[in-house]
Amino acid sequence: MTPPSAPAADSDTLLADLQATRSLTVQWTLVGSLGFLLSFGVFALLYELLVGGPLSLRLGLDVPWWHPGLDLLALLLAGTLILVPHEWLHGLAIRYYGGKPRYGVGVSHFVVPYAYATTDHRFERNQFAVVLLAPLVGISLVGVPLMVLTGWGWLVLPLAANAGGAVVDCWMLLTVLGYPAHVTVEDHETGVRILGHPGDSPRPLSVGGLVWDALVGSASATVGLLVLFAVLGPWLLSALGVTSLVFGTRGTPTFLFAFESTATSVSFGFGPGVLVLGAAAGLGYAFVRSRRRQRRVRAEANDADVHSES
Questions:
Q1: Which of 40, 91, 180, 281 has a CA that sits 20 to 30 A from residue 3's CA?
Q2: Does this entry carry the keyword Transmembrane helix (predicted)?
Q3: From CA 98, how far away is CA 208, in angstroms rounded?
């Protein structure tokens, strides 16, 4: 199959240069963490439904010297090494559209490590969308059948790590889809540049923007609740002398948090209510952000009308 030719650059007007700012890095980390947890639950559910048995994260190696600690180490290694096929699939898609991929690693703002595949090639918007989605779709389509056919439940972890790690790709996808289809995209090590006609501008109230705001709000609220319940909750309840407390009804979506303290131990757990509250907070955050954008757009339109009349 002959790969499509490179898009003709009908305009070199720079519309946006998307960089990994500190604020975006925090958002990616939060949404990626939530994405990992949700993806883990989805892949685990698929395993149990399709295999017909409970999920086990043990590698099942029948060797005398192998023990659970090595299982954990191997699983963490598998979750990290998934970056290799992830970036390789980006590179395959880049080659398909006529580019020459370059690979590397870096640290965003000296805190968050990352790997990348980039090129000097310029893509059409929809071509770049394929490049972004290739690892998420490709690894999931191969990994899920492999997990089911072999019964390797431990594959849930690298599959979830791949899905959670694709959060930056999804953010870029939502962003570039807010521009007209004829724009072109240049990738680089720390972001992307979007080029097009001088009049091309992103839609102020795009579906992608609403989805991202909802994800950021949900992730922030969920992580905040988990920290509150896991760190402050047990300490505060123990200090107050509370021995048992349950928020919500166990076995239902309302179950939020359970705490129990005895003379020898303290235990606590979470329920789906944390995700429900997080989702509700995310929708509320997206609504507020949308209203603010609407007011800003109306204000800019009014200012433009005043200037044109004068």
A1: 180
A2: yes
A3: 28
